[in-house]
Amino acid sequence: MGVLKRFEQRLEGLVNGTFAKVFKSEVQPVEIAGALQRECDNNATIWNRDRTVVPNDFIVELSAPDFERLSPYSGQLGDELSGLVRDYAKQQRYTFMGPIKVHLEKADDLDTGLYRVRSRTLASSTSQSSGGPAPAQGGAPRGGYGYPPAGPPAGAPPMPAAPPPGMPGGRPGPAAGQRAPGPAGPGGPANAAVRRWIEINGTRHQISRPTLVLGRSTDADVRIDDPGVSRRHCEIRTGTPSTIQDLGSTNGIVVDGQHTTRATLRDGSRIVVGSTTIVYRQAEG
Fold first, then answer.
1. Residue 89 near residue 97, CB atoms below 8 Å
2. pTM
């Protein structure tokens, strides 16, 4: 059962109780839940081969009417949304640098039914003392429904002035496909470049460009002969991390069991388009 479905079922059990008024709001909790999942995907940062860090501090901005309806239940709703983020991260193999928190805030520039989600990565003292990644700000805030992103909330802890290399705001890390400096000494050459490819029905297709379009058209970079696949179905974008983006296809994409329009890819990710399964692979060397 999907994370969003479990979240909906937990809320349904509370409809006759304290959450009865919540569902009268123009903004539904499940909409916010989906936005938090997308915020994790859009701001996922690969720290090392086995660790992809996502934001753990989320601010959900609501219109004045929606905020008035939802704020009396912000504690319970925040706990449920935090649990959803935790479940989704476990499913996607994401990690956090600190405790997960979801806050509701009022935004006077939003109309009823519109919302905006912002996120940050805040490291706990335990993460810092254990030598984990230092706190770093998440990706650029993404406004819901076309509204511009807002700045950090009043009173929010300041973000570090100098994040580590490769993290947002830090010194540039190595570009995709380039070699990063490695340790000196015998047997210590520079780290190998990252190789990326996809496997379709036993056939390997190398990814040697920043974007790779998959579809049924002969103009696609990789042609998939499947009636359930659109002419230009989706696009793989290499980077840190690599992502896949739906290009307005008829049947959409499924990544690691989740229907989505955009997702972060990791080695072994399974992508389903139409009735075709694609395996994304990457390795150093």
1. no
2. 0.42
